[in-house]
Amino acid sequence: MSWNVVGIVVLAVAAVAAKSVALTGFGLDSLIEIGASTVVIWELSGTGEDRQRRALRLIGVGFGLLAVYLLVQSTWVLVSAFRPHHSPLGIVWTAVTAVVMFALALGKARTGAGLDNPVLRTEGRVTLIDGLLAAAVLLGLVLNAVAGLWWADPAAGYVLVYYAVREVKEIFFGDH
Q: Which residue, 34, 35, 153, is CA-closest to 90?
């Protein structure tokens, strides 16, 4: 959680400076990751399927809100042909974040499987997705900075939408 708390600050600074929808979305995803971690801690402090179901739904709602926000923002950026600025800070942060999140996701997946806890396993997927999203945002930022492909930033936003919708679908309609 502490990584994401610092990340929200770093990403807010980078997103405002670059006017990047992808960095903004990734910052919001970090906020959801904090919420998901808090929900897991709450869920692990009690028992029962109802508690697990509520915990999963809370995580799912967060992803649903992220998907809607990013869909609207990414579409607006593409339609208006807004060109985000380059973000060296965003590039460095998302590169390091990808590595950290992949390592954390592996640990959470193993722990969730060992405890046979669906909420912890789901939170591990949230962290894996966080790593994948960091990689997608990194690619968008690098393509914009190196090749001038301004549309790569909102395209990275659409990648985040895809994964958020996938998680919502799994949480609300998956076999738990």
A: 153
pLDDT per 10-residue tile (average), the chain, 176 residues: 88 94 88 80 76 83 90 93 94 96 92 87 80 91 95 91 90 81
CB 59 within 8 A of CB 130: no
Residue pair 52/129 in contact by the 8 Å Cβ criterion: no
Q: Are 29 and 65 in contact (CB under 8 A)?
A: no
CB-count burial class (<10 Å; 0-12, 13-18, 19+) for 173:
exposed
Q: DSSP character for 46?
A: S
SS3 content of the chain, % helix, strand, coil (to 5): 85, 0, 15
CA distance 60 to 107: 21
For 114, residues 6+ apart whose C-beta sits below 8 A from its C-beta are none
For 11, other C-beta atoms within 10 Å of its C-beta total: 29
Angle at 9 between CA 129 and CA 63, to 5 degrees: 30
For 146, counting Cβ atoms within 10 Å of its Cβ (0-12 exposed, 13-18 middle, 19+ buried), the class is exposed
Q: Which residue has the tokens 């770093």?
A: 10
Q: What count of residues does the chain have? A: 176
